[in-house]
Predict the structure.
Amino acid sequence: MRKQNTLLYVSRWVAVILLSFLPAVAQTADTVWFRATLLPGNEVPPVTGVNASGTATIAAHLVRDSAGAVISGSVDFSVNFNFPADATLTGMHIHRGAAGVAGPVTIDSGTSNVAATAGAGSISRQGQARSDNQAALDTLNGMLQDPSQFYVNLHTSANPTGVIRGQLQRAEVVHLMAFMTPANEVPPIIGLNASGIGQVIAIATRDASGNINGGRVTEVVTYSFPTQVTFTGFHIHSGLPGIAGPVTISSGLTSQPSDPSGSGVVNLTVEVSSTQTAALQTLAGLFSNPGNFYINIHTTTNTGGAIRAALRKADVVRFPVTMTPAAEVPPVTGLNASAVANVGVATLRAEDGSVVAGFAIFDVNYRFPAADTFTGLHIHDGGSTIAGPVRINTGLSTFASDSGFGNFYFATTPQTGATMLASLNSLVNTPANHYVNLHTSTFTGGAVRAQLGTAITAAPTVATALSAVLDTNTTSVAPLGLVSLFGANLARLTSDVGGGNTLPDNLGGTTVDIGGRRARLLYVSPTQINAQVPGGVALGTVSLTVNNGSSTSASVNLTTAAAAPAIFFSSAGGAVLKNTNFSLVSSSNPAQAGDILVIYSTGLGLTTPPLATGALATSEPFANTATARVTIGGQTAEVLYSIAAPGFVGLYQTAVRVPTGVVAGNAPVVLSVGTANSNSVTIAVR
């Protein structure tokens, strides 16, 4: 039994629901990633006799209006190339055009007459899409709809119409973290007073079947050793805690002295191609089940590894803000500038929900009236009337912008230490006490600024509480099942839980009480909460309240039952997968008699052996539910097992065999436990 794809479908479910309930704001910022494989044979006509290749990673930094349309933006081009001989780069662009079509340039990187020596090399540039450049805006909006209709092209003086090109593919990103120690090594290292905070940022694309087919991995460690050491390797390995597994993604580091103090940062990026089987499998695993992999840094003294840790998905909190001169302390006057920003804080949390390490993701679209020199971009401690100290620094020191228009995108290195942790914990709980600030040579104290949140004074209100599958007919919930709440002022900010062995009962200052017991939290936002019903809750009608860190909501009634089965939905109907390859059952991938299917649900109640509230389900042993029954197309299906999904909280998986005689077409699926029947979902059957 596997669980990897479970996370994918649950994550997609959460994402779709969240988008439905996000409030409209004047302008928002976000970054969307794309990738392309560049080859001479992709040119029109194909370039022959040139043994060149490349990969492009494209970050589209978008500013959208309240309807979601892109109204301006910046594009970061990052291209790795390999040329057989020296070349002069004369252009690097995004063109409009499908494969086999030579289309016009629509976004220019500004690359011109750049020398490229033979062999491997790289180039990074930023192109702009101003509000008056309709071709560029159409390209950005079009890339969001169908990136295959656009391509990246690298031009040289020898091949002025293009030497290597590739169609764009949408990419996805995951941020992972790990607290690395010698005690995690196999065998544990005794007597070495060293540690590190590992950070992995993986970018990947998928093929038409949804399988990851390539990408890029950035490996970072903020390390601390008692004296200077020499690093001999920095890798991602396949293996659970307690197992010494093989290297599957290497950073390429072979011999590098640490900082003389013994403390510093290693930051390396590697490409993963479709031909690197082990690396590709690991890349896929980083998205679906990162706990099966660990990050390890080796030294000449500890050749098998000095500090290591299993990877965990970081908890990322986003702060959408618009930075203005008027928000500075004192206000800046006479400057017609702004910056629409999306600042993220990625954290590693302890089991109680407190932050033990973190880093920031700055995504700042600056719009100044003319050329300017930027001298700093930071997160500061301080309320709206305070000019407070810098806490998180991007490292930006002197950047001369020739137009005053562009984007700063920084992912800082992992941060820790008592002062930093105090700020990070405050930031994810009381963001109104912190601000982001962009400094210039003219306005050294700050040119545009924004608080990362506003204080909540209104009490939370709960309008709706129902099973997390969000079928309006599934209002009953069961102990250890998932519940979703909708309302207003439910939390100060949007936050979710990326990793750990148990769910916290406090997230961003928000708590939920069900029947007098504290619920565990997966996700909180001002308008929605996803939580796990406490295992010991009384059955019947119980009260539910939310505290947003400032005040408590009025009580609402929630119906609890020993079992309240509810099947999750997918884009194809029910969240039902084929056991053979864990592909989603759909009209293009229908089930047939004899197939073993896995149904994902919540609300199946307590298990044997029992699970604690908030604890991840185990596979050794499996946590079995009460006897489950399933019908497909009205016919009884053989149930092979019904368990709490290993590695998850509140999620259940039930394996069944499709009975013979089910009429082809859309067949209803119903899951029952005791006298309780689930909602009906449909699957395609042939």
User: Anything to note?
Assistant: The two ends are 25 Å apart (CA to CA).
